[in-house]
Amino acid sequence: MDSPSPEADAASDPGRGPTEWMPARRGVGPWEGPWPDDPRLDPELLRGGDTRNVVDAYRYWSMPAIVEDLDARRHGFHVAIENFENDMNIGTVVRTANAFLAREVHIVGRKRWNRRGAMVTDRYQHVRHHGSVDELVAWAGEQGLPIVAIDNTPGSVPLETARLPERCILLFGQEGPGVTEGAQAAAEMTCSIAQFGSTRSINAGVAAGIAMHAWIRQHADLDRAW
Ligand SMILES: C[S@@+](CC[C@H](N)C(=O)[O-])C[C@H]1O[C@@H](n2cnc3c(N)ncnc32)[C@H](O)[C@@H]1O
Q1: What is the pTM of this model?
Q2: Which of 93, 87, 133 lies closest to 113, judged by CA?
Q3: Ligand 1 atom having least distance to the Cα of 172
Q4: Side-chain half-sphere of 26: how many Cα atoms within 13 Å?
Q5: What are the strands, taking DSSP E only, across the chain?
Q6: Mean of the pLDDT values across residues 149-159?
Q7: How confident is the prediction for the chain on average, in pLDDT?
């Protein structure tokens, strides 16, 4: 594949780092030079330019090609979030799950959630809906996946020192109720995030980011990060 411009060069060199580190922060313009012969590339994007919020390595790639590439590299952790009352953090959770390459995201309870915070990342993730905690627990059992609840409730162990399973579902609760009793009862363990201030808890989306990164620090191959 020819790389006639710095943007195109960045697009074809996965070693160059993500979009935010490159000069072409708002994406790349129409492809310049000889038409590349790569089935992963989307002719529409090559013609019109690619302004999507994707890392440079995926510039001009079609969405199915990106998902296929992600699928080959996904991590062993899943993320689940209860959605019985308030869905305002779910978009953030989905976006972060994409950044850390969670295998799947599970929405438990109501099917509808506000996609705005996801910034389109949900299209690159596998998002599975379960109508109830029981459905999630049954599915996890079939897959042999332990559930690790994340909440600061009695009986929880500090996330900072806990050993997280390599294959697991990290389960988060909502503003207000937190992780439901049934979900905590089904969990192999509950991990709390150490706090030092006056607030009872942190935002569920922030807690999800901290917990996912705890998994990354324990299990991810950092040589494969962008
Ligand atoms: C705002 S919290 C509400 C529940 C909280 N247990 C309470 O007593 O106020 C919503 C969700 O964020 C996550 N969360 C917030 N703070 C946390 C912490 N310090 N440790 C672990 N999870 C936390 C949990 O998943 C929790 O269910």
Answers
A1: 0.90
A2: 87
A3: 25
A4: 2
A5: 77-83, 105-109, 127-130, 147-150, 157-158, 168-172, 189-192
A6: 96
A7: 90
